[in-house]
C-alpha cells in the first residue's frame, strides 16, 4: 500500500512540473508571429520587405495562391491595418497585379508624427474577390509581424527658418528637418491650430542633382493648446532615394541645401 502511495505521490509531482513548465504556455501568452507570413485558406500573404526610418515606413507585401496558379485580379482585403504606435499617422495602400497574373503586390507607405515601432504588425480582415461571383470571400481576422530594416536619418540645418505661407497670410518657424532614403520629417511652430489651412499652405518638394523635381505628398499634424502650436509634416518617398543624389529640399518656396557630412 505504501508503494502505491509513493507512486501516486511521484506521479503528482511530475504532473505539477509539467503544468508549470508547459501548461502555462498558452497561445495567448505566446510571442507574436514574426514570420511575416499567413496562410489564408487557399492563399498565402507575406510581408516581403519593410524599410523605415523613425517616422516613415515603406512596406511591400504579396498575396498569391498556394498552388501557384493565377490569382483573381480583384482580390482585396476589406481592412488592412498597420500598427502606428499610437501616433497621428497617415498612409496609403496600393494593390498591383504582377505581369504573370500570379501575385498581387500590396505596397504600403506610412508616416507618423511620433516615432514608429521597429516591428511592423499587419492586421487583415476578410479577403474578397470583387465581382467574381464564383469565388466566395474568405472571412476572418489575421495578424503577423515583421522586423523593420531601419535607415538612419540625416539632420539638415533649419536654424528656426521662417517660412512664409503660400497666401502670405502668416509664417511658420521651421526647427528641424530629418531626411533618409525612405522619407522626410519636419517639425515647426505655427500660429494657428487649423489642420486644413496647414495642409493647404505647407508644401515641399525635392530637388535632385540632375535637376529632377519630386513632389511630396505630406502628412500633417498639429498639437498643443495655445499658440505657437507644435506641428509636423512628413512624407514617404515614392521610391527609396540615395541621399547623395539629393541637392535640396524646397519648403514653402525656401531652398534648404542637403549637405552630407
Model description:
- The chain is mainly beta.
- It has helices at residues 2-23, 195-201; strands spanning 37-40, 43-52, 56-65, 76-82, 89-97, 103-112, 119-128, 138-147, 149-150, 154-156, 161-164, 171-179, 183-190, 204-208, 213-215, 219-223, 229-236, 246-251, 254-257.
- It is elongated, with a radius of gyration of 25 Å.
- The N and C termini lie far apart (83 Å).
- 28% of the residues are buried.
Oligomerization: single chain
Average predicted local confidence, pLDDT: 84
SSE order, as H and E?
Answer: HEEEEEEEEEEEEEHEEEEEE
Q: What is the count of β-strands?
A: 19
- Shape label: elongated
Rg result: 25 Å
Structural class: mainly beta
Low-confidence stretches: 18-31
Strand content: over 45%
Helix content: 10-25%
Distance between the termini: 83 Å
Q: Can you give me a brief rundown of this structure?
A:
This protein is 11% helix and 49% strand. The chain has helices at residues 2-23, 195-201; strands at 37-40, 43-52, 56-65, 76-82, 89-97, 103-112, 119-128, 138-147, 149-150, 154-156, 161-164, 171-179, 183-190, 204-208, 213-215, 219-223, 229-236, 246-251, 254-257.
Key features of this structure:
about 260 residues, mainly beta, six-stranded mixed sheet, six-stranded antiparallel sheet, 2 helices, about 10% helix, elongated
Amino acid at each position: 500500500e505504501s508503494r502505491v502511495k509513493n507512486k501516486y505521490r511521484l506521479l503528482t509531482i511530475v504532473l505539477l512540473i509539467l503544468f508549470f513548465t508547459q501548461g502555462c504556455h498558452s497561445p495567448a501568452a505566446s510571442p507574436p508571429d514574426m514570420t511575416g507570413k499567413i496562410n489564408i485558406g487557399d492563399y498565402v500573404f507575406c510581408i516581403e520587405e519593410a524599410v523605415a526610418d523613425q517616422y516613415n515606413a515603406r512596406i511591400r507585401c504579396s498575396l498569391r495562391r498556394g498552388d501557384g496558379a493565377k490569382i483573381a485580379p480583384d482580390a482585396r482585403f476589406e481592412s488592412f491595418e498597420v500598427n502606428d504606435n499610437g501616433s497621428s499617422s497617415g498612409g496609403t495602400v496600393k494593390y498591383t497585379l504582377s505581369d504573370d497574373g500570379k501575385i498581387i503586390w500590396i505596397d504600403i507607405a506610412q508616416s507618423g508624427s511620433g516615432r514608429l515601432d521597429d516591428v511592423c504588425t499587419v492586421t487583415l480582415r476578410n479577403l474578397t474577390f470583387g465581382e467574381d461571383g464564383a469565388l466566395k470571400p474568405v472571412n476572418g481576422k489575421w495578424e503577423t509581424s515583421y522586423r523593420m530594416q531601419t535607415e538612419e536619418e540625416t539632420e539638415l540645418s533649419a536654424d528656426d527658418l521662417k517660412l512664409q505661407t503660400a497666401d502670405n497670410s502668416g509664417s511658420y518657424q521651421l526647427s528641424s528637418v530629418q531626411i533618409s532614403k525612405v522619407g522626410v520629417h519636419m517639425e515647426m511652430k505655427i500660429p494657428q491650430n487649423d489642420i486644413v489651412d496647414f495642409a493647404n499652405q505647407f508644401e515641399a518638394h525635392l530637388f535632385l542633382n540632375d535637376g529632377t523635381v519630386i513632389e511630396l505628398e505630406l502628412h500633417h499634424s498639429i498639437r498643443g493648446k495655445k499658440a505657437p502650436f507644435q506641428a509636423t509634416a512628413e512624407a514617404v518617398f515614392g521610391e527609396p532615394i540615395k541621399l547623395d543624389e539629393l541637392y535640396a529640399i524646397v519648403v514653402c518656396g525656401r531652398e534648404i541645401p542637403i549637405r552630407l557630412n
